[in-house]
Design a protein that fits this description.
single chain; 298 residues; alpha/beta; 2-enoyl-CoA Hydratase, Chain A, domain 1; Lyase 2-enoyl-coa Hydratase, Chain  A, domain 2; four-stranded mixed beta sheet; 12 helices; 10 strands; disordered N terminus
């Protein structure tokens, strides 16, 4: 018990330092043991997951596994309403996937043709699909650099806010590979094929101003304002009906891959599911009542 209390105090301290003027409540859950690369805390229903792999926050296989485990738990916990991903290392959200780990895998793959030949998607693909399918809003608060796998994770999130200065991008061609965790697929869908080729095929990263102009992120803010902006958005989302957000996210995320009529049917079915929900019935009645007696708009 003493060890658990000590861990709670330690986590509160590091979150207070990292978030500056943003007061995070001293409410920490440590039910998932054995986390090496993740730290987490919460403020109400907003849960902040911080990547921690000093010195430059490289992503690796274990970080991917830990994040998947964390999401599985948070998906079943009704207290979790919104997730914010950010980096625990100053200036690094996730610099990129560990190239040393990739190089070792490449050496093995030259000797074993079965490596990478599975019909199943690899674990990093699975993680990012799970983020996209997560029924609660997910925000990427990009502190500094998010390149390669770090930016691919951010692309799977619903909202992206970054620091200025900071940079995002998919520079994998510079080391002879391509973005291997969805970057060549998600980025063109976000900003168009021409812009995606401009960045990916030249191995370029975008600074904050370019990222905002190209639509890679919602906004860019000074570093000391990042978490305040992310938490402001998170609490706004937290206050909205969770079932409405979940189905809205599902329809937006999946309808683009469907024939038009199928997409419209999905939207229609989701609409009627929500029409029958307690939140919708209560909120619509409140809206009608609050507008009674007001003159009609001309």
């Amino acid at each position: 018990m003493a060890k658990r209390t000590e861990l709670r105090v330690w986590m509160a301290a590091i979150l207070a330092i990292a978030f500056g003027s943003v007061a995070m409540a001293d409410n920490f859950d440590n039910d998932i043991e054995g986390m090496r690369y993740l730290q987490y805390g919460h403020e109400g229903g907003v849960y902040v997951i911080r990547f921690y792999n000093p010195p430059s926050n490289l992503m690796n296989a274990r970080m991917v596994t830990e994040t998947r485990d964390m999401l599985k738990w948070m998906n079943t916990d009704a207290r979790v309403r919104v997730i914010v991903f950010t980096g625990a290392i100053p200036d690094f959200f996730i610099q990129h996937y560990d190239v040393g780990e990739l190089s070792t895998t490449a050496d093995a793959a030259t000797k074993d043709a079965t490596i990478g030949a599975s019909a199943e998607l690899h674990a990093t693909h699975q993680l990012f699909l799970e983020i996209e399918a997560f029924p609660k809003p997910v925000i990427a608060a990009i502190n500094g650099q998010a390149h390669g796998g770090g930016f691919e994770l951010a692309l799977a999130c619903d909202f992206r806010i970054m620091t200025n200065p900071g940079s995002v991008g998919l520079p994998e061609v510079n080391v002879g590979i391509l973005p291997g965790a969805g970057g060549t697929v998600r980025l063109p869908r976000l900003i168009g094929v021409a812009r995606a080729k401009e960045l990916i095929m030249q191995g370029q990263v975008a600074d904050a101003d370019t990222a905002v102009r190209y639509g890679l992120v919602m906004k860019a803010v000074p570093p000391d304002q990042l978490m305040a902006e992310a938490l402001k958005l998170a609490h706004k989302l937290e206050a909205l009906p969770p079932q409405s957000l979940a189905l809205t996210k599902k329809v937006i995320s999946t309808s683009g891959d469907m024939p038009l009529r199928d997409a419209l049917k999905l939207e229609q079915d989701s609409f009627w599911t929500l029409m029958r929900s307690e939140d919708a019935q209560r909120l619509m009645k409140q809206y009608v009542k609050s507008n009674q007696g007001r003159p009609a708009e001309k």
